[in-house]
Amino acid sequence: MHKNKTISKIKIADTISPKLGFRDSAADFFHRIEQSNSDIIKIDFENVVFISRSFAHEYLKQSKKSKKEIIPINQPENVNSMFEAIIESTKNPKKFKVKPVETISLT
To answer: What is the pLDDT of residue 103?
Structure first.
């Protein structure tokens, strides 16, 4: 299946925190992954208790553009739900119509 490819496993809760909250943390995490010699990276979400929308969005964005094959494993339901919400919102972004308003001078 993965002939001649190297595989690494990273426990994200140990590497970053059980509470994944910041967009920059996801970007830094993927920067380190890209420097890895492994071709396939298994990201283990075991013990993750929280993931913010901004972390999840950046994680998905970085995962998509990564040169590595990213395989998430042991994702808790809260992580799955947040990823699904991000994916769904990027499929159907809400667009607001802005109505022009009249500008008045207060002088």
So the answer is: 73
